[in-house]
Amino acid sequence: MIVAVGIDMIELERVRAVLARHPNRFLGRHFHPRELADLEGRLDPVPGLAARFAAKEAFQKCWPETHGWRDVWVVKEGPRPSLAFAPALTAAMREQRLSAHLSLSHTREHAAAVVVLERASAQERG
Fold first, then answer.
1. Fewest C-beta in 10 Å: which of 43, 46, 96, 109?
2. Domains, in order of start, for the chain
């Protein structure tokens, strides 16, 4: 059963601007080291950074409590992105029988993310 849906969109130019002004602070405060490693070597990492930033915002719109920027991060194992969580969020998700589904997209000007939180039914739990 779908519990919540969150969506966020951000302008790439906004990310470029903050990255130009405060690169170390912005990256260190908002992105998990794994996200930064996944984007390493790209000619233009801004679309990937923006999409990941939007994913964090989209998840926060689904989640009832605030959390840190680096408590949620995007991982790509294969073609589909997914969300990973810090231990406290992982435990809360498990306790509530929730799973998160993620979709990312970007154009030349914007990046967007949609997060769907789904609760497993009692039958699915086994």
1. 43
2. 2-121 (3.90.470.20)
- With vertex at residue 6, the alpha carbon angle to CA 20 and CA 77, rounded to the nearest 5 degrees, is 70
pTM listed for this prediction: 0.93
Tens digits of residue pLDDT in 87-124: 999 999 999 999 999 999 999 999 999 999 999 986 65
Helices (runs of H) and strands (runs of E) counted in the chain: 6, 5
Phi, psi of 77 (to 5 degrees): -120, 95
Average pLDDT over residues 15-38: 96
**DSSP label of 60:** H
